[in-house]
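Issue 218. Parser rejects a valid record. Input:
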Amino acid sequence: MEPNNEPNNFPAPVADNGKTAGIISYFTFVGWLIAFLAMHKDNKTEIGSYQLRQTLLLYIVGIGFYIAVEIIIAMLFFMGAFGLVIAFGWLTWLAGIGIFVLWVIGLIGAINGEKKPIPLIGEKAQTMFPGI
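Output the parser choked on:
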């Protein structure tokens, strides 16, 4: 059997610049944990750190928002203010769309490998979590 002297057409492996960790961090908090612990912790990159900080604050804001909303709606319900419960529910729905839009903006930035801050929270995230 003769050795194959034909060149292979496979691309050379490319070093990850943190873009993959940034993208994965946008897919649920479990994705954030996987991106941080398995991909970023031992191979810190500027882009990976930037995106992980943003997604962490986005998750904290989103979870905090929904906990506060549930408490307010429960209080209004037990007070018998059913009209306010419905109105507050609609406002909550609109705010949820706003959080989703922020998530999409951040994800697009991660896919493009950019250090583009998410509106309203992106710059704050960079100062709040400097250890990431």
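Fixed in the parser; the record now loads. The CA atoms of residues 44 and 97 lie 32 Å apart.
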